[in-house]
Amino acid sequence: MTADALDWAVDHMCVTFTRGLEPAEVFTRYGADPARSRLLDADAASDLPTGQFAAGTVSLLRSVRLGEWTFCVEEDGVIGSWPELLAVLSRGTETYSVLSTEGLAVFQHWRDGECLENFEPGLEHPRPGHPSPWWDRVQEALTEHGDSGMAPVVALVLDHLGLTLDDATLAAPLPTLTLAEDDAPSAPRGDSYAGEGPVPPGAIEIL
To answer: Distance (Å, rounded) from C-alpha 29 to C-alpha 34?
Structure first.
């Protein structure tokens, strides 16, 4: 999978990849009712009221299963990067999350409710002080592809998982719905934020 085929992943998106769950279960763990999902292509999905065009903060979620993994692409939102959501989403399985929005880029890997890696890619950020096997691979991908946003990181994850998720796939009809941030899994937020490294075990309540 090459970054050149991933214009959708350059910026302003959040995507999760979760092993062994159906899209309906992924939507449920996000806090959405899967019965509300509709099969919409990218153009039709873009007409749904989200972000500043909706009451409150609303994300657009599109999801489908590819092999053993189900991805969920989020536009106009960052719910897929929240530790509360990722603790729920990865329960009994594992989840990768890649966020790129408003100048913030975050890579996360969770397994069974525990954060294994969490860092902000980019040469301006120091290497994490904790074990981070993805750090060098992510940095190398970003250096090689230059100004391509987080698309090289998404391509790296796709290659690792053996998946293809190019622009044509995202343009096709996919199960689609909207989700308000108030309906997503949440817990009282502490003093940390997504870029400060792994969440200590036990710091997140698994819902």
So the answer is: 10
Neighbour count for residue 162 (Cβ, 10 Å): 11
- State pLDDT tens for residues 89-129: 999 999 999 999 877 889 999 999 999 999 988 766 667 77
> 168 near 71, Cβ under 8 Å?
no
Nearest by Cα to 142 from 157, 164, 129? 157
> CA dist 43 to 47, 142, 184, 207, Å?
7, 29, 25, 34
The values of phi and psi at residue 93, to 5°, are -155, -155
pLDDT at 142 over 60: yes
Among 92, 74, 79, residue whose Cα is nearest residue 18? 92
CA pair distance 101, 57, nearest whole angstrom: 15
Neighbours of 167 (CB within 10 A): 14
Nearest partner of 29 among 183, 154, 182, 175, judged by Cα: 183
| List of residues 6+ apart from 201 with CB closer than 8 A | 114
Cα separation, 202 vs 64, whole angstroms? 31
Q: Alpha-carbon distance 81 to 99, whole Å?
A: 6
Predicted structure pTM score: 0.84
How do the residues of the chain divide into helix, strand and coil, expressed in percent and rounded to 5? 35, 25, 40
